[in-house]
Specification:
It contains seven helices and four strands. The chain has 192 residues and is α+β, with helices and mostly antiparallel strands. The protein has a single domain, classed as 3-Layer(aba) Sandwich (NADH Oxidase), CATH 3.40.109.
Length: 192
């Protein structure tokens, strides 16, 4: 059976995989709706345990609400007892989404087979799709802290049977991606 090639090449995919970086500076203008929709659509094509598709994506493009989530997360960070997190949570001008114009909150069904892994795969798809369109992105673990409060879950319409795992920031890059840090290539074992 011959595999049909889609437009583009394997080199483009590999280059996107190798060149994507976490972006922490964004231009203020909002990404286009068509770009957002394409990024979101790629997320639901990620693999899932038993095809549960346990995810939910809450898109926040309101600057005040993004700031509210950031400040709420920082409050939890300051109370964490972990020195580095307490310090970072206390930095007044630190924004967990790096002032991106779009934040996506990723939650997963608690009772699914592998919700954390499935949501992680969905986030990776979003990050790679964004990079393929030259849109900056960053995987935000701190976002879940704001959603430890039931009131906040309800405010953002997170499904009641879900738990927030991550956030993703999206926006146009201020500058080109830097080269990748050196990779440890001593991590492969072969049995042939």
């Amino acid at each position: 059976m011959k595999i049909k090639k889609v437009s583009g090449s394997m080199d483009e995919v590999i280059n996107t995989l190798k060149s994507r970086r976490s972006v922490r500076q964004y231009r203020p203008e909002q990404i286009k709706d068509t770009e957002l929709e394409n990024i979101l659509e790629t997320s639901i094509y990620a693999p899932t345990g038993r095809n549960d598709q346990p995810w939910h994506f809450t898109v926040v493009q309101n600057k005040a609400l993004i700031h509210e989530i950031s400040e709420g997360a920082k409050e939890v960070m300051r109370e964490s007892g972990m020195e580095w997190m307490v310090q970072l949570g206390g930095v007044e001008d630190f924004n967990i989404f790096h002032r991106a114009p779009t934040a996506i909150i990723v939650s997963g069904k608690r009772e699914a087979t592998t919700p954390l892994i499935d949501c992680s795969a969905a986030v990776q798809n979003m990050l790679l799709a964004a990079e393929s369109m030259d849109i900056g992105s960053c995987w935000i673990g701190f976002a879940k802290f704001y959603f430890q409060n039931q009131e906040n879950l309800e405010k953002f319409h997170i499904p009641t049977d879900h738990e927030v795992h991550f956030g993703v920031s999206l926006g146009y890059k201020v500058r080109e991606n830097p080269p990748a840090p050196l990779r440890n290539k001593e991590v492969f074992s072969y049995f042939r």
